[in-house]
Every structure is written in C-alpha cells, then in structure tokens.
Amino acid sequence: MSHPTYETIRVDVPAQGVGLVQFNRPQSLNALNAQMTGEAFTALEIFDADPAIHCMVLTGSERAFAAGADIKEMAGKTAVDMFAGADVTDWSRLMRIAKPIVAAVSGFALGGGCEIAMTCDMIVASETAVFGQPEINLGIIPGAGGTQRLTRAVGKALAMEIILTDRRLSAEEALRFGLVNRVSPVELYLKEAIELAQKVGERSQVAVRMAKDAVNKAYELSLAEGLVFEKRNFYLLFSTEDRAEGMNAFVEKRKANWKNK
Ligand code: DAK
C-alpha cells in the first residue's frame, strides 16, 4: 500500500528496511493536533504493513520532537468531546504497531510528545532534548500514558516530581534515569536512530516481532504470567525457518540468511 499525500508529516525510506516518519508543523513546535497524529499513525501503519520495511523511526525537528498536544485545539473541548474521541485521534493506534519504532528526539518532547516517545520502543536523544510532562500547568494530568510509562521508566519519586512540578529532564538526565537509549550530538541523532533501526531490521523479523511483543508484556502481566508468555513465544519460534537457519549458520560459522519466515 502506498502512502497518501500528507500535509503535516513527511515520510521517507532513508536506509534499506527503515521507514521514517517526521512530524512537520514547525510553526507550532510540532504540537500534536488531530491531523498530524492521524497522519503519523497512518504512515506508521502503512510501513507496518509493508514487508520491505522492518523498523520505523519517528522524529520531529531539531528544535522540537513535539511540544505536546495542540493546546489551541484542546482548549474548546468538553469532557464528553475528549471521552467520545470527537476530533481526537485514537492514540492507541501507536501501541498496535507490530514492528519496532525508534523515536529520534531533539529539542522539546513535552506532554503528549514525551508520551509518544515513551510509547515507541527505543529513544535516541540529541544533546538538546528536553523531556517533561507539563500538563499540571494547564490544570490537567498526562492523558496518553505519562503517569504510567514515565513511572515505570524512571521510578515513582522522580516521576512524581516531573508530573507534579513540571520538572524537565535534560538528555543526559534522561539517559542516567533509563528513559532513553543514548544521547548523540544534534548533527548525529537522526543518523544514529536510523542506524539503530537498521540493526533491528537486519535480524529475523519473526523473532524481532515476538521479542517486542514479549518485552511489552512486561508492562502488563505479572512476572509469572509474563514468563509463561515468553516461553510460549520461545517455543513457537522453534517452528520457524529462521530458527533453523540461525542455529545452522552458527554451527557452520557463517552469517544467517534470514527469510523472515
Ligand atoms: N500547543 C499549541 N501550540 C503550541 C504548543 C502546544 N502544545 N507548544 C508550542 N506552541 C506554539 C506556541 O503557541 C507558539 O505559537 P505562536 O504563538 O507563535 O503562534 C509557537 O508554538 C512557538 O512556541 P513559543 O513561542 O512558546 O516558544 P518558546 O521557545 O518560548 O517555548 C515551549 C517553547 C515548548 C516551552 C512552550 O511553547 C510551551 O510551554 N509549550 C506548551 C507545552 C505544553 O504544555 N505541553 C503539554 C500540552 S498538554 C490524550 C493525548 C495527548 C494528551 C492528552 C490526552 N488522549 C489521547 C486522551 C496530551 C496533552 C498535552 O500534551
């Protein structure tokens, strides 16, 4: 399926197997309005369904990954509008993407921007990245996973401070507290995110998907249930061609030739 014409995002295939989606509303620091989130999720879904793409990178601009949900768009909404999802994109679409997504974050990743980055599977940050959940300043709380994902990532005490007082994390702090995978110079963060996506793309895609699925279950299940889920995926992989190829390649001291089957 090919991409439609987008107005608020850009898409590209910057390296073999890597689909790039870039927020493109620089005038509002990539504030996440319904159109832009809708277009971004659609683009990710199209890459997800494309067998030539193995991993996606989601990025913004150097100045802002995304400064949060579009406050101007949200300002007139009622509780019923928000609850009913009227004019609000269904953000759970992002959680249903099966292929891994690397967020390449520079500048502001605030509110919904921070939540989208945390919903992705890995984060490569530029040195200028700033993470925060400033919703408290608007009289609301994070509504797209911030209270849950940030707490799991950095622990309760720091998450409380970030969410209750709008404490912002620098890129270095985000690295120290386990929120991001690495910090790169501004000129390199996108390149490094694409390289990370390529590394994922070079593995058996059946195993990659099962691994993503199993790691994400660690958020949702008890340890005992998670271990059962992991084992089932583990045993299931013994039915794939790639499992046989991977082990044969090791024994024969050669590089595996993945079929993704
Ligand atoms: N919404 C709309 N416009 C925004 C914006 C935002 N979040 N952030 C920035 N802009 C606009 C500014 O209004 C300004 O536009 P003009 O005035 O020039 O027309 C332009 O971007 C440049 O911004 P500034 O002039 O303010 O630039 P500064 O460098 O001085 O400051 C800043 C940058 C990022 C610190 C500042 O703009 C700022 O504080 N922005 C707001 C950050 C914020 O509060 N974010 C949280 C929003 S609440 C949910 C899904 C998501 C959410 C909730 C529920 N569901 C699915 C249920 C998420 C909620 C949020 O994210």
Description:
The longest helix is centred in the N-terminal third of the chain and has 16 residues, at 34-49. Helix 6 (146-154) packs across helix 7 and helix 10 (205-220) runs antiparallel to helix 11. This protein is globular. The chain has two domains: 9-201, 2-enoyl-CoA Hydratase, Chain A, domain 1; 205-251, Lyase 2-enoyl-coa Hydratase, Chain  A, domain 2 (Orthogonal Bundle). The relative contact order is 0.12. The chain is 45% helix and 16% strand. The chain has helices at 34-49, 71-74, 79-84, 92-95, 112-119, 146-154, 156-165, 171-176, 189-201, 205-220, 223-237, 241-251; strands at residues 9-15, 18-23, 55-59, 64-66, 101-105, 108-110, 122-126, 130-132, 169-170, 182-184. Bound molecules: 4-(N,N-dimethylamino)cinnamoyl-COA (DAK).
What topology emerges from the helices and strands here?
Layout lengths: L8 E7 L2 E6 L10 H16 L5 E5 L4 E3 L4 H4 L4 H6 L7 H4 L5 E5 L2 E3 L1 H8 L2 E5 L3 E3 L13 H9 L1 H10 L3 E2 H6 L5 E3 L4 H13 L3 H16 L2 H15 L3 H11 L10
Helix pairs in contact: 6-7, 10-11
